[in-house]
Amino acid sequence: MVKLTAELIEQAAQYTNAVRDRELDLRGYKIPVIENLGATLDQFDAIDFSDNEVRKLDGFPLLRRLKTLLVNNNRICRIGEGLDQALPCLTELILTNNSLVELGDLDPLASLKSLTYLSILRNPVTNKKHYRLYVIYKVPQVRVLDFQKVKLKVSIAHCCEAFQNCPLHSLPENLLSKSILLLL
C-alpha cells in the first residue's frame, strides 16, 4: 500500500480529459486513506481514485473546483460527514463496486446539494428493498442514478407507503409543494 503524499500527487498523471476537465489520475496505487489533497492546490475538476484500497470516503480539504470524483473498485464501507463543506461543487460521484451495505450508509450523500450523477452499482446496498427510492428520497437532486435517468413518477403518498415510518413533514419542502417525488 502506498501513502498518499504531496510527492505522489506531484508525480501522478495530470491531464485534460475528454470533457475538457483537468483531471488528477491516482488510479491503482493501492492508497488506503484519502489525505494530503491540499497539495493539489484545488487545480482539478476531476480526481480518479479508482482501483485503490480506500475504506472511508472522507479526508478532503476544501476543493471548490472539484466536480467529479471517481472512487470505483475500492473498499468503501463508510461515507464521512461534511463532504458538502469540503466538496461544495461535486456533481458526479462514482462509487461502483465498493462495500456499502446498509441504506443508512448513504445518508451523508444527502448533504451534497450539487450532486446530480451518482453510481452505487455493485455494492451490497443495491440489493436492499426500495434502495433506489431511498436514494432518490435522500438525494432528490440526483438526475442520473446508477447510469439510469431519474424520472418524475411517484406521489408523496407512495413514498410514505414505501417508508411506513416516514412522516410527511420530514420530506424536503420542494417535494411537499409539488406533491411529487423523483423515482425510477
Task: Describe this entry's structure for a reader.
The chain is of the alpha/beta class. The chain folds into 2 domains: 6-149, Alpha-Beta Horseshoe (Leucine-rich repeat, LRR (right-handed beta-alpha superhelix)), CATH 3.80.10; 151-184, no CATH class. It is built from 5 helices and 12 strands. The protein has helices spanning 6-11, 83-86, 131-138, 156-162, 173-178, and strands at residues 13-16, 22-25, 46-48, 56-57, 68-70, 78-79, 92-94, 117-119, 144-145, 148-149, 151-154, 181-183. An 8-stranded mixed sheet has the order 1-2-3-5-7-8-9-10. A two-stranded parallel sheet has the order 4-6. It has a two-stranded antiparallel ribbon with strand order 11-12. A hairpin with a 2-residue loop joins β9 (144-145) and β10. The protein starts with 5 loop residues before the first helix and ends with a strand. The model is unreliable at 175-184 (pLDDT under 50).
Entry summary:
This protein has five helices and twelve strands. With 184 residues, it is an alpha/beta fold.
The value of Rg in angstroms is 17 Å
**For this structure, what is the CATH homologous superfamily of the largest domain?**
Ribonuclease Inhibitor
Proportion of beta-strand residues: 15-25%
| Number of E strands | 12
SSE series:
HEEEEEEHEEHEEEHHE
Mean pLDDT across the residues is: 88
Can you tell me the number of structural domains?
A: 2
| Shape assignment | globular
List the main descriptive attributes of the protein structure presented here.
eight-stranded mixed β-sheet; mRNA splicing; 5 helices; nucleus; alpha/beta; U2A'/phosphoprotein 32 family A C-terminal domain-containing protein; Leu-rich_rpt; disordered C terminus; repeat; Leucine-rich repeat, LRR (right-handed beta-alpha superhelix); two-stranded parallel ribbon; globular; 184 residues; 2 domains
